[in-house]
Amino acid sequence: MTRPGDGFAVVLTTTSSGQQAGTLARALLDRRLAACVNVVPGVRSLYRWQGAIQDDAEHLLVIKTRASGFEALRDAIRALHAYDTPEIVLLPVADGDPDYLAWLARETSAGDGSESS
Asked: How far is CA 71 from CA 82, 88, 99, in A?
């Protein structure tokens, strides 16, 4: 049974376009590194980069996953992302609905073919 504290997480990243966001989200889902990715358009990001303040329109990806799969998820984002240094931030899930967490666990299985997509 899946319970709170079993190691689930939300990972955040941003992209510069909806097309990039969709491509990245689908790749993470195809690899079973994420159970769900919300793409939030219309995010305005202000940040310091290479000594200057930037002000960019971006799409925020809210990625639901297992904390134990973070390294593989991070590596995939780095490999597929257009940015030199993409935002990749893990936020641990302290609690959640048991049915939702069980679903999340099933959808982020090792991808060893033991479960259908």
From this structure: 19, 11, 25
pLDDT in tens, 9-68: 999 999 999 999 999 999 999 999 999 999 999 999 999 999 999 999 999 999 999 999
> Which strands make up the sheet holding 52-66, listed edge to edge?
36-49, 52-66, 8-15, 89-92
Domain covering 8-107 in this structure, CATH number: 3.30.70.120
- Residue 35, classed as helix, strand or coil, is coil
Contacts of 16 (CB under 8 A, 6+ apart): 56, 57, 58, 59, 82, 83
8-state DSSP, 117: -
For the whole model, what pTM was predicted? Answer: 0.88
